[in-house]
């Protein structure tokens, strides 16, 4: 179903993509060539859609390129954020525009709200498809409010009471090095960052390896709507989330405490794989996926909506920007 929205600044067709209860509004230019580079013409439409649905997809507009994408994201009135304390490899493309996660194309990346494994996170996340994959490569989304409601209340209560502890090991050659995660070669700067963010840390192997622990929320309430959302990455960090061959190889190389990353309850007790499988199943049953087209631009409320990445073939370039 298409509808047309008219205001003083723009005329757009709208369409709602909906799958498994998650919905995304699509905005497209009504006729002829149009550019999204001037976000002022689209800002109010995008903001209204994001408040209602959690996200909006701009499709059919002229290609922005890296600089245009940077300007679009910055025009929403909040400063663009650097990718600090990251959990996956990615590269700065230009200014505060980054590549999307640089995991191998064959790997699926589960649903997650950006940096929900910390106590600070971006309020908004922007995706721009510069090059669409030949096949696959979707960025599925899932409504975090719906995920929360579909989880068993007893499981939600247990997580809420105990919270989630994330344990990470950097510098053992198995994951992102601490120099990349913290953006510095200086250990004292790492320690200052950890103290400021209430992250416990210890240096191992004569200072070559860094181990951190941080206890974070399992759920959150949206600051504008007050709605409860499921908001953590226990299912991503936990060892059970790794492919079986990878998990076995890692556990043969190191003990569980030295894994690149793992998740526990906040008191240090283990989280059962069965609980995390239930969470993963709810995410799968709530996902909305669509094929990227070149020049597509997606704006998500990072609290309301999670995202992931499907495997793909061929070249794929999806850029990311984040705002407070």
Automatic annotation (TrEMBL):
SUPFAM superfamilies: Clavaminate synthase-like. Pfam families: TauD. The keyword DNA-binding does not apply. Transmembrane segments: none annotated. Gene3D superfamilies: Clavaminate synthase-like (3.60.130.10). One of its GO terms (biological process) is antibiotic biosynthetic process. Keywords: Antibiotic biosynthesis, Oxidoreductase. It comes from the Bacteria. InterPro entries: AlphaKG_dependent_hydroxylases, TauD-like_sf, TauD/TfdA-like. The keyword ATP-binding does not apply. Its cofactor is Fe(2+). Residues 38-322 form the TauD/TfdA-like domain. One of its GO terms (molecular function) is 2-oxoglutarate-dependent dioxygenase activity. PANTHER family: GAMMA-BUTYROBETAINE HYDROXYLASE-RELATED, TAUD_TFDA-LIKE DOMAIN-CONTAINING PROTEIN. This is TauD/TfdA-like domain-containing protein. The lineage of its organism: Bacteria, Pseudomonadati, Pseudomonadota, Betaproteobacteria, Burkholderiales.
